[in-house]
Write a structure and sequence with these properties.
Blueprint lengths: L3 H20 L4 E7 L2 E7 L6 H17 L4 E6 H8 L15 E7 L3 E4 L14 E9 L4 E8 L2
Antiparallel strand pairs: 1-2, 2-7, 3-4, 4-5, 6-7
Helix pairs in contact: 1-2
Length: 150
């Protein structure tokens, strides 16, 4: 079984995919993982409703239960951009001179540059429980907290 940190970090990708589908939120501004707790911060225009938060949690847990494969691989930067466009980039700067990118991909769900380790499939993440959502109007950022629930 993967460590809690690996499961929680992989859960970030699952929650981000759900937030993209429910809210249309695209770019991640920050991530935080400590043990079984994670926090995803994305660019967004407002605080989501309770119903939207419930839909994000439901979508994330459906993806977990699906046991979708989590792929990790390296690609040349130009090739990755050709395949995935700017969807692989968040608001984190790449190291200067980066020519090879490490990509994590949950097919039809999430794709990102990412240097962290991940589970092999979403079932290994385990059930996710969303916490509070905090909206920072001055930065147009939405912070979504979550925990591993099992």
């Amino acid at each position: 079984m993967a460590s809690e940190e690996i499961r929680t970090h992989s859960g970030l990708h699952v929650v981000k995919g759900a937030a993209e589908r429910v809210l249309g939120a695209k770019k991640t501004a920050a991530v935080y993982v400590s043990g079984r707790h994670g926090r995803l911060t994305v660019q967004y225009e407002r605080k989501p409703t309770d119903e939207e938060m419930a839909r994000i949690e439901r979508a994330a847990n459906e993806k977990v239960e699906e046991g979708a494969e989590v792929l990790e691989f390296e690609m040349e930067k130009e090739e990755a951009e050709g395949h995935f466009g700017d969807a692989i980039y968040d608001l984190f700067p790449l190291p200067p001179g980066s020519t090879r990118l490490r990509i994590v991909r949950i097919p039809d769900w999430n794709v990102n540059c990412c240097n962290e380790r991940h589970v092999e499939n979403t079932l290994q993440v385990g059930k996710l429980k969303l916490g509070r959502a905090r909206f920072r109007n001055s930065k147009r950022e939405l912070e979504i907290e979550f925990d591993l629930a099992d």
